[in-house]
Amino acid sequence: MSLQDEVRERSLRDPDGFWGEAAEALEWDKRWDKVLDGSRAPFYRWFVGGRLNTCHNAVDRHVAAGRGAQPAVIYDSPVTDTVRTITYAELQDLTARFAGALEERGVGYGDRVILYMPMVPEALIAMLACARIGAIHSVVFGGFAAHELATRIDDAKPKVIVSASCGMEGTRVVPYKPLLDQALAQSEHRVDACILLQRPQAEAELTPGRDTTWQEAIADAAPAECVPVEATDPLYILYTSGTTGQPKGVVRDNGGHATALLWSMKYIYDVAPGEVYWAASDVGWVVGHSYIVYAPLLNGNTTVLYEGKPVGTPDPGAFWRVIAQHGVVTMFTAPTAFRAIRKEDPEAVKMHEYDLSHFRALFLAGERCDPDTLMWAQDQLGVPVIDHWWQTETGWSIAANCIGLEKLPIKPGSPTKAVPGYDIHVLDEEGEEVADGQIGAICIKLPLPPSCLPTLWQNDDRCEQAYFKRYPGYYLTGDAGYKDDDGYLFIMSRIDDIINVAGHRLSTGAIEEVLASHPAVAECAVIGVHDAMKGELPLGMVVLKSGADLEEEELRRQLVQKVRDDIGPVAAFKHVAVVGRLPKTRSGKILRGTMKKIADHEQYNVPPTIDDPAILEEIDEALKPLGYG
Ligand code: COA
Ligand code: AMP
Fold first, then answer.
1. Atom 4, ligand 1: residue with shortest CA distance
2. Which of the residues in the chain have pLDDT under 70?
3. Which residue has the least CA distance to atom 15 on ligand 1?
């Protein structure tokens, strides 16, 4: 048995002992009464009765322990030609002052604050400032459109929104204020105040009576102290794609989250306090929350906040420059970033221009990592490349190669084995465990370990429906795959309508809702098709209402624009075909799976329940001009 298996067995046999010990590494204002509370199963709670402050543990604790002069954050922004280092002592001061500015605007314990921010240090400071005063942050990714922001405003009901005048997408300046104004006009909920970071690339005109600049807000704000909160209190809400246009508000608690994340830095990532760690993601995603902000700071690391892309800012050597310049020992990103680099620099010429001798490991997640990309990265870098599997709902990895325990052999295509705390089972339709090598629904036996979602924001029912109902006693991950006879997991696909575009999680159902709202569209289907760089791309098929007299080209343009306006550019929705009808079963279910196979040039069987097999030929013909079918 491997050490990872042994440690995992102990974590499952004695969760109280295992996680209680892990939690000792944090500073608590009051020790917990109970490590694991199952009195409201399937809604389990960790460290009940305990009180702590996550910001204290991520910042103040390190200053008190003598790390004040150590860089906490290195902001590296090739798009604005900036490198800025913030020490732990400076981070403490900035966070305390911004927390004070929030308090002056009436924000306190349990209040929500929405952050709609680009990749700037102020985003991280605002997150920590909320944690400091017991407020709950909800970060909305900058690539989402106004409508998505409005949906989140109405669900989270924030007192204050923190934003910036603009984001930078490569060389493109993206003004945020118009999007913020539109979102506030669309939402029913009213906010008390907005705080806007003015960036020189595009200053925003403030709305009088509502807006203050970040700069003014902190100028004379009184620093706020850390407020101890219940371990079970929410630290943040992070919305993620569900199966409808209404995103799911994943809640993260304070105590379980801090415990699991701190544990992960040592045992999964093998990074020691003081070292430089870099997650090239965005604070708007769960990877950004956990591994740009909370985990590295809880562990006393220096975290790199990179505002740029893997390619084009300015070239495919950008990642290697950052690793070399800042002494990064371990990096975390999505496979798509490596596919983008490889496409532009297949021989990794740029990589070999830098001294990367201090670099120890690359971690990949967010989407399935194709073995080819993994092997290329490993051959070029000469360090272990570790695929690991996780979700917004868990906040940290479910399966990984825990190199801080021991390095297990790498099997390309597999994120290795279950991490301590997780009891993974692959189930068939009836809930029976399938044999090794057989594909099934990947489920986690309850209780989930610390950091995993206690519930969805003010919606226990939806949480139960979405995750706990299908297989009682288990959490449904929504992923399908298999275990091999060494216990290695292989994550193959989703069992729902979620697709993964450049490591970004999207719901095809949500895109369908947008298409269906166009007045000329009678019905539609959206599928995820294979894309060599982004992994998957959404592809739409629409049937027109009879009498709709719009030029096909114009209709396509309008639909593409509508998805961009309603969901955001991040949906990367570019392809839509007009078809005469959609293939359905005799009971009226659209055969999306068969259409996906046609689009991906895969072999398919004509489903026996299909209404009219001739439609499949028509779909094939309609997709060919788009390069599919
Ligand atoms: N604000 C505004 N617009 C944004 C945005 C943001 N924060 N993030 C992305 N967009 C826009 C992009 O500019 C692009 O717009 P376009 O259609 O006008 O070109 C669109 O959304 C799609 O973005 P993306 O999917 O990121 O594609 P890209 O072509 O700009 O870049 C990669 C492709 C592979 C370089 C990029 O996706 C990448 O670096 N991925 C890394 C993976 C990652 O960070 N995953 C997060 C989870 S770990
Ligand atoms: P998100 O919640 O945005 O992090 O997306 C989570 C989903 O991304 C998972 O449910 C998987 O479908 C997919 N995913 C994440 N990491 C991996 C991985 N290493 N291998 C395969 N799929 C992954």
1. 143
2. 243-244
3. 569
